[in-house]
Write a structure and sequence with these properties.
The chain is an all-alpha fold and 137 residues long. The chain is built from seven helices and no strands. It is globular and about 40 Å long.
Length: 137
């Protein structure tokens, strides 16, 4: 329903640069993280710090590892297009590998969002949540 309202199904995501897809995907991924946290009993003051921990480059790099084997060929290409951008520069204290992987992950989520594939986005985010929760246990 939201895809039709936003007319997402008429857009070819391949016409977007990987940076624009990462820009969109960053917002989508952060919204998913915030949505996950909002249904917890965690005090509101801690939610923002927890959300930052979920969307930082290191956490997104871990999510990249989880998703990479689960992707279709088309999705993997979108992930790699974002990861391989040469114009992406990490912060001074950032890890180049993590930052590139995070950009790839964001590009994938942006790619899927522009296509209106919200069900697939939710499926992949759930796979990330499940795998990372198992690692912490």
């Amino acid at each position: 329903a939201i895809a039709k309202a936003l007319k997402l199904e008429t857009v070819d995501p391949r016409t977007y640069s990987p940076l624009v897809l990462a820009y969109i995907g960053d917002a989508v991924y952060e919204l998913l993280a915030r949505q996950k946290l909002a249904v917890t009993t965690i005090p509101a003051g801690k939610l923002h710090r927890m959300a930052i921990g979920m969307v930082c480059a290191g956490a997104q790099s871990q999510a990249y590892e989880v998703l990479e084997p689960l992707l279709t060929e088309e999705e993997a290409a979108a992930l790699k297009r974002g990861r391989n951008l040469n114009s992406v520069k990490p912060p001074k204290n950032g890890n180049v590998r993590d930052y590139r992987r995070a950009t790839g992950l964001e590009s994938l989520f942006g790619y899927l969002y522009v296509q209106g594939r919200l069900e697939r986005i939710n499926e992949l985010f759930l796979a990330i949540e499940t795998a990372l929760e198992e690692q912490q246990a």
